[in-house]
Amino acid sequence: HPQWHTLETELSAFNLTAIETMLGSYTKVLFVRDPFQRLISAFMQGTGSSTSFSSFVQDVLDSGQENAGGTWKPLVSLCQPCLIRYDYVVMFGFLRQELGHLLRQAGLSTDSLLPEFTDTQVRWTYSWLSEQMFSELSLQQKKQLSHFYHWDLSAFPFSRSLLSD
Asked: What protein family does this chain belong to (predicted)?
């Protein structure tokens, strides 16, 4: 639908009929990542040098879900998985297997298009980093974060998330 292809047009700018038509004509892929790992990544990429992780988390919690930045806003509110029927949900940490499957489904060769991933190393690093960062938080902050990301934790199988406990 070329008439709808404009830069940075949000889906909410269209009426329901147009939205249903557009979404029906695309293969919809949702990439998901443990919300606590998303927080760590946002911290490391943005404010990591100017504040402690605990202070950063408190700022996130104080801002509330409505004012949360896109990098740490709950995925359910960003991607609307209850309203949009995604064809694929790809979990961070399993990119190589899942992207290979996705490319094969699209009829593309995985040999030339699939970059090298070090999923095992990435998972181990994030596991260690998550535990270190999680230990810096107060019990109250941990509970508030679990509540903040309640819908993400319910919607997606983040079985190893520290926030699930």
From this structure: Belongs to the sulfotransferase 2 family.
For the CA atoms of 71, 8, 22, 17, the dihedral, rounded to the nearest 10 degrees, stands at: 100
pLDDT per residue as tens digits for the range 39-63: 888 888 875 567 899 999 999 899 8
Residue 155 contacts residue 81 (beta carbons within 8 Å): yes
Q: Which residues pair with 162 in a beta bridge?
A: none
**Full-prediction pTM beyond 0.90?**
no
Exposure string for 126-158, b = 16+ CB within 10 A, e = fewer: beeebeebbeebeeebbebbbebbebbbebbeb
Provide the residue type at 70 as one letter: G
Q: In angstroms, how far is the first alpha carbon of the chain from the final one?
A: 45
Half-sphere exposure of 17 (CA within 13 A, CB side): 0
Q: Which amino acid is located at 10 in the chain?
A: E
